[in-house]
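[Target chain]
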Amino acid sequence: MNTRPLFCLLRIIASAIILGPLLATSAETGTLNVLFIGNSFTARHNLSQVVKAMAEEGNPGLKFEVTTVIYGGRTLKDHWRLGTPNFVKISTLTAAEEEQTLAYLREAAKDPKDQYAPLALTRHEELAKSLGQPHRKWDIVVLQSYRDDMPDDPRYVEFAPKFVELVKAQGGRAVLYETSPQTQNEKPLASAPDIAPVLAKEKIIRDMAAKIGADVVPMALVAHHCQTTRPDFTLRFVNDAHLNQTMAYLTACTMYGVLFDRSPAGLSVNKITDTRYLDAQHRDQDRDGGPLTRVFSDKDRADLQRIAWEGLQQFRALK
């Protein structure tokens, strides 16, 4: 498979800098300050903005302020190296700490094999310019990694807890967004896949999360519940190794359930638009040639909202 177009897209995604929402806001305004850290599984479909729309509809008067730090295809280990911890501790970050990160990135960017250091350097140069202004603490930090969300992977075991510890030191709530690319189906199913490996994975991540004090968006189990109750749904693209619009909507619903401990049932948000189109001549089509924006019927919307909440309860009830 030719991955160069995808890599180019992820470079563009990674170079996007969102600094405006970092500025301090008053807690009296009913604001949740939320930082999303991840890769294309967070960037695709503007997932954080879908969650924002759901959060603000479900909680009238709430301002759900979103900032993202995204590097395509990167792990939490990569994020740590590229200075993302500085964004987590933005409210207390000193100029000296940021300069130390900049010095490292300037050297790293000289290596032509280090494809992400230049992107991180640009991001941190912008961050450094804002250090003279007050910055807010995060109420919630969502952490998403790259296909290493099995906690027995040494990268995840080491760096998920590091990020969670840093988030909690800032007074924030850490949420582990677990992706499930290996168990998503690109074609309708005749029957649900074997649940055993899904449960094994979920029990491991549940135990680690309990140990480090983090919440989990358990998309492997939620996806399996969807495959069981609506096997006609597909959850990933055929021509792209990413979650499709249905899985993105299911993920946003599950995240809403985790953040507010409340079912997303009844929310009117009913559409998802992917951020990657088919090609330059078909900008209104997704990677499989379907509409870039999917509008869910009332039944499908209700089913996905119900499935997300039921799957989350299954995760919470694991023995």
The chain has one domain: 4-316.
